[in-house]
Design goal:
Blueprint (H helix, E strand, L loop, with lengths): L14 H12 L3 H8 L3 H14 L8 E4 L6 H8 L3 E6 L2 H13 L5 E4 L12 E6 L9 H14 E10 L4 H13 L10 H8 L4 E8 L7 E8 L4
Helix pairs in contact: 6-8
The structure holds S-adenosylmethionine.
S-adenosylmethionine binds next to α1 and α4.
Length: 230
């Protein structure tokens, strides 16, 4: 197996080290969680519209997981649907913020601090699992595979994962800059085929691929359904 590369150097390192490095870079502290909660209203609205267009109809009380939850906007939306929400984030500031957001809106949910690469739940514990705006932080396909495998483990029926499509204005611009200058973006674009190649052997097929704005914005939500018990 080829060792992955650190996002910072071209020296091959162990997969766990890369996960640790990436994790340190992405983890939200108090300052970033506030910044995230107050991101541009138009950007937030467009991302939430993508979430709403992607989500399946589920009955009230359906057990769902938002991982990672960040500042809790998806947890809030899912709790407002009447679903039974669990949420997790590596940053305790993010978990605290999400917990408070739910309480302030007279909603409930279980919010934990934890690592999405090693979650505490049983296999197929949740009817739906959503992982929004995380996978693009990981520069290596092996890390992304590890993440997808863990998400698929706890998802019983529905698995939604956002990714940045390479077939977009931003994706092509970053690719061109890399070819011309060797400079990599911190945001990693992933093909839908890569997601499918990991999830299909685990029993999931693609139900739909929803773009924020196809070919213009890179952000997509891939919605997978479990079709076999693997
Ligand atoms: C860009 S935010 C997205 C949050 C949320 N899904 C949203 O879109 O509002 C990424 C989040 O991933 C969390 N994170 C990074 N690595 C993680 C890991 N290994 N396990 C759990 N959370 C992680 C960070 O703390 C941060 O809150």
């Amino acid at each position: 197996m080829t060792p992955p590369h650190s996002p910072y150097t071209e020296i091959p390192v162990m997969l766990d080290d890369v996960v640790a490095l990436s994790r340190d870079r992405v983890k939200m502290d108090e300052k970033t969680v506030l910044r995230y909660a107050n991101r541009k209203p138009a950007k937030h609205a467009a991302e939430m519209a993508l979430v709403e267009r992607s989500m399946p109809d589920l009955p009230a009380g359906a057990r769902v997981l938002d991982a990672p939850c960040g500042a809790g906007r998806l947890s809030l939306w899912m709790a407002q649907q009447g679903w039974d929400v669990s949420a997790m984030d590596l940053g305790s500031a993010a978990a605290d913020f999400t917990r408070k957001l739910l309480t302030d809106n007279a909603l409930s949910g279980e919010v934990d601090v934890g690592d999405v690469f090693a979650m505490p739940w049983e296999r197929r514990e949740f009817k739906l699992v959503v992982c929004f705006r995380l996978i693009h932080h990981f520069p290596d396909a092996q890390i992304r595979e590890k993440l997808l495998t863990e998400l698929a483990r706890v998802a019983d029926q529905h698995l939604l994962v956002s990714y940045l499509s390479p077939w977009s204005y931003t994706g092509l611009k970053r690719w061109l800059r890399y070819r011309l200058t060797g400079r990599r973006s911190r945001q990693n674009h992933t093909s839908l085929t890569e997601l499918q190649s990991v999830l299909e052997p685990l029993g999931f097929i693609l139900a739909r691929d929803v773009a924020q704005r196809r070919y213009f914005h890179a952000l997509h939500m891939a919605y997978f359904i479990r079709v076999s018990n693997r």
